[in-house]
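Morning run. Coffee first, then this:
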Amino acid sequence: MSGTVRVVAGSRTKGFADGSALSVAQFRFPIAMVCTSDGERLYVCDAANNRLRLFNTKTQVVSTAAGDGDANTLYTPTGLAFDRSFGGKPESALFVSSRVGIRRFYTRTETLRACPALTNRLIAFTPGSIDCTPSGELIAVSGSSLQLFNPTTGVIRPLEFISSPLPVHTSAAAGSALPVPAPVAEVKASKIIPRGVVVVDSERCAFITCGDTGRPCVRRITLPDTLFVAPQH
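And here it is:
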């Protein structure tokens, strides 16, 4: 199967500018993204601009959702996840991870707030990629480990797991995905360097991208059932 790849936002000039997606808008280092279920709003971490950007796929306009370029407001945002603890309003808030911890962004009012109980603990917790479980806790890549973060209480704890490597193979000629081989070994968390994470509800698991020395791959982690118990409202 073949597809067409095309630019939809960004005028291909490095910098910062809001406006028409293709002719005016500029990014400096776009990284993590999330998209609303209707496909209309695409939020992008523009890391080097210290901003959260919004690409409206309907109007074809890029705007700044949060951040003013000041590192004290939003410093190198690297991860995004919808706050799933909102129950019937799962897309009304986003978690944004950055070098100064995790903040909650309210999409309807476009306000950015620090999560509680973290004032003096941010220096020890520098999250990268994040995702939110149905229980409302975040799984965050931090340095060379995975951690669980409760945004209500501010409690941070390591995620202990044993995972199996699932290398991703592609055909250089056709670009098509080849069958993923069966797991070949169990690898303890201390031997991997996680880069990205995504939670899959139906499988009670998470997939992580890893930068293992000599063997970059995707791994699957079975998660505790408690992380899939949705909060009561």
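DSSP finds no helices and 18 strands in the chain. Good start to the day.
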